Amino acid sequence: MPVSEEGFLPTAAAAAPEEPQQTDFQLVRVKSTWCRVKKGETPSNLKDKIILSEAKIGECVSEGGISWTIEAPIYFCYKVVETHNILDPSNPTLLWGHTTDTQQLELNTGGKRRLRRFIVIDEVVDELYGSKVRSYFEENNVQHKILALPTTEETKSMDLVLNILQEVQKFSIDRRTEPIIAIGGGVCLDIVGLAASLYRRRTPYIRVPTTLLSYVDASVGAKNGVNFLQCKNKLGGYTPPVASFLDRSFIQSIPRRHISNGLGEILKMALMKHKGLFDLLKSHGKYLLDTKFQSYSGSANRGDAALQTTRIAIETMLEELAPNLWEDDLDRLVDFGHLISPELEMRVLPSLMHGEAVTIDMAFMTYVAHARGLITADEKEQIIQCMRGLELPVWHDACSWTLIQAALRERLRHGGGMPRMPLPTGLGVAEIFNDISEETLRGAYKLWVKDCRTVLEEGTAAL
Ligand SMILES: NC(=O)c1ccc[n+]([C@@H]2O[C@H](COP(=O)([O-])OP(=O)(O)OC[C@H]3O[C@@H](n4cnc5c(N)ncnc54)[C@H](O)[C@@H]3O)[C@@H](O)[C@H]2O)c1
């Protein structure tokens, strides 16, 4: 086209970029084929013969070309089940409790094909419960492979994930019908969860927690992961199990310190959103420690304390996790105690357990909340006393001001430039803050050191 001088002059029509044309399509399946249909234009004669997907394709045609926007909701459904006698061969939960697919159930229980299961179990748990686990599968005529591994914070790595995957490949499981079973503490469940999510892109798995912490926390959400380059849970994903089966009788064999460790995570939920749970921990904490959550060993009233404590801890956790399974919303109350603790836990490995590191973080943050005027001195004292009553540490020498600064910088980097600091604003209520000044943090740190380090030194001197 010849270009005249006038040709360079913008005319009204040439200057205005064309409006992009947006068309929204639904997806329908007719027989075996999926196809796009403009929204609202499904032929009425097909309406009862088609399957309508929840996915959508938006097509945008503009001067620059064409683009498609895909909206594909991903649906997860998983069960968290409190059960008893899970290793009793007559209890079908471990084999069938995860499935609601009655057709599959009938097919598998019809005896046409021998059941198969791949089980990963923590080495210590294997020593304690391995013979029962073996009897369970033998008596149910299940072809099985039990892989016992040393699943500890130090071994929580990709190496162990690959180790599991090699064995899974050798055993050759059917990913549609043969979920991998993980039996152990939070470390074991996290490693197996990651391995399962990688095998054939997503293989169903079942969690059987054997520590208090994994009973109330690691079994409840969707996350899995391993440590990487000295950083806590740096590699991982959001793939929930098909089910978590919680049997509190496993907890009876964990050492007292591990009960405290689990109580640390329970206290987190109490401080963030449930005053009643806080009161339970304050009044029954010692009993729960002494009886290791075995409610039948106490009076009815005390027994209820164990049941109520785990139930409220799980329910409050589920309330916070279920609407935000993939952590798209970074404002999470359940991050309380997890701002400084990842740095601290990895720095002093293996001297602090996860729940202990979380409690030290919560103790410092309690002082921050007080310094900011969110809680009274009496409330601060009640929280610290409750931690001590649960035999949890409220201080650690390695938790220096430098470490706190480094951890908070890391938090900023991953929080979209905001600290998103959950802090108690009373007992059992909390909010997320982004405006805590360095001066407040420093003031809180000084007072925390003064109050809590002194007590530790006195305690140590007395030993
Ligand atoms: N995925 C999540 O959402 C989530 C949530 C919280 C914590 N976690 C992870 O959980 C881990 C901590 O879990 P944990 O506290 O259960 O620690 P753990 O898995 O290391 O177990 C602690 C120790 O207890 C032993 N043990 C386990 N069960 C036992 C039993 N019944 N009797 C005797 N000994 C037993 C284990 O051998 C281990 O040495 C951390 O790595 C943390 O990151 C994950």
UniProtKB/TrEMBL annotation:
The terms under GO molecular function for this entry are: 3-dehydroquinate synthase activity; metal ion binding; nucleotide binding
From its record, what is one biological process in GO terms?
antibiotic biosynthetic process
What is the name of the protein in this document? Uncharacterized protein
> Which positions fall inside the 3-dehydroquinate synthase N-terminal domain?
148-260
The entry's keywords? Lyase, Metal-binding, NAD, Nucleotide-binding
Cofactor dependence is on: NAD(+)
- Domain 3-dehydroquinate synthase C-terminal, which positions? 262-401
Pfam families noted in UniProt:
DHQ_synthase, DHQS_C
**InterPro entries (UniProt xref):** Dehydroquinate_synthase, DHQS/DOIS_N, DHQS_C, EEVS-like
Species this chain originates from: Callipepla squamata (Scaled quail)
